[in-house]
Structures are given as structure tokens and as C-alpha cells.
Amino acid sequence: MLATLRNIFSPAAIVQTLKTMEPMATTIMDLFFKLRPTHPLPLIGLADLVRVTRTVPMVRRDGTPVSLEGESFEAQFVAPLPIKVKVNVSASELNDLRALLQQPQAVEAWRKNKLEQVRSTARNTTEGLCTVVLNQGKVSWPVQLEGGRTENYEIDYGPVLTHTPGTLLTAASKPSAVYALLRAMDQKIKQSGIGGKVEFLAGPDVLTVLLDIADASHSTVGQHPIRVELGERKISFGNYTVHFMDEQYPSPVSGEWRAGWT
């Protein structure tokens, strides 16, 4: 039976089943970590992870090229750790499987169910990691050791970029104040050297204020130059869109649910 299980979960069979499964969607990973290149080496240099968008001066044809990484960047390398999970196959399942071996569609459904358990756990773990990095500016995640012990695996990318508004938004604020705040945050992010499209997320407290502002603007249509629109889990002020962020993830050690927006 062991040989049969190996055939059912052969690399070719797994790939074929995965092709039939719908892509998994998660908020943080899909919005902020869209670029996921395959790295060919066992170690990754921090210089490959922390890159700044900038301009450079031109040089003469025989001049020295301008370094893109910066002369003072210290060479540091990190070793990525894998996510490994296993799904048990019970004795009763093995008995049922013997009866299903002559039914390819039934075997495919059984394999798909097992792979879905593995796939969803790996994806949820990755989403939790992405959430920690986005909020804390570092990877901070438990690593399971022999005997059930754990230690913390950490990669620090430096302080998180912050922005403190001169005036806090309230339910009485105008849409133009929201737009001005989002624009200031947008400019600060781009001026810090982070390229690409800027995305905004709002936790429940901020979201409540934004919804109150949007509701007030709809009752006074024509009095505000900024267009305000409500969509599915998002709200737009002019050309800036704020996505709703209320996802949580369980701690892999304690099981305690943690907010993804803090």
C-alpha cells in the first residue's frame, strides 16, 4: 500500500492535480508581495531584498559607473527556511482507498482534498509572515525545533516608514482632508525610494471614520470637489483607494488570533 500511496502522490500526479485547483487569494500577499521570483541560491543577500528606487548622475564615456547599491551597504546573507507540513492518512482511509483504486476520479478527488489541506496551511502561514513584515519591517516567526521547542527566526529590514498627520481625521472631516492625507503618504513613500504602485489599507477604527466621512459627503452631493465612491471592501477618495483590512491570523504556537492591521 505504501508503494500505491507513493504513486498517488508522485510529483507528476501532484502537479496535475494542482493545475485543476483555483488559485488561492490572500489580502497582504496579493497586494504588497506580487513579485515572487525564484531564487537560484540557498542564501539571499539583503542587498537583493532592500532596494531603493533612485536616479543617478550621468558619467563620461570613460567614467566610473555609479553604484546602485551604495558603497556603505554591508554584505549580509540570510538562509530562507521552508514550510513543511504533513497530513496523516488513517487506517480507515487506507481501507477505503483500496476500494477506490479502480476509480481514477475518486482517487483524484481524495488526492485533491489532501493537497488542499497542505496548500491552504502553507498559504495561510505565508500570509501571516507577509503581515508581520508589512507591519513590523522584519520577519519574526517561530521555528519548530526537536522535542517541540520553538525559537524565533528574525530578519530585520530596518525601521518601518511612518507618517504623522498634522490633524487627525474625524467624522466631521471633509473628503479633501482625506485626499490630502493620502497624497502626503503617497509622496513620502515614493520619496523614500520605494517604487511601484502605492496601496492603502485601513483597519476597523480608521475605516469607521472614513465611512462616516463618505456618508456625510453623499448627503451633500455637489458640495465636495473630491469624488467619493464605495466599492466591495474598499472606498475611494479621488484617485486614491483604501482597502478594508480586517483579516486575522492565528499564532502558530499559542493559537491566539492576531490582527493583521496592527
Model description:
The chain is α+β, with helices and mostly antiparallel strands. It has two domains: 2-57 and 69-156, no CATH class; 175-259, no CATH class. 39% of the residues lie in helices and 15% in strands. It is built from eight helices and ten strands. The strands form four sheets. A four-stranded mixed β-sheet has the order 5-8-7-6. Strands 1-2 form a two-stranded antiparallel ribbon. The mean pLDDT is 84.
Question: Can you lay out the helices and strands and say which pair or pack?
Answer:
Blueprint: H1 2-8, H2 11-19, H3 27-32, E1 44-45, H4 46-49, E2 77-78, H5 91-100, H6 104-136, E3 138-144, E4 150-156, H7 175-191, E5 200-202, H8 204-219, E6 228-231, E7 234-237, E8 240-244, E9 248-250, E10 257-259
Parallel strand pairs: 5-8
Antiparallel strand pairs: 1-2, 3-4, 6-7, 7-8, 9-10
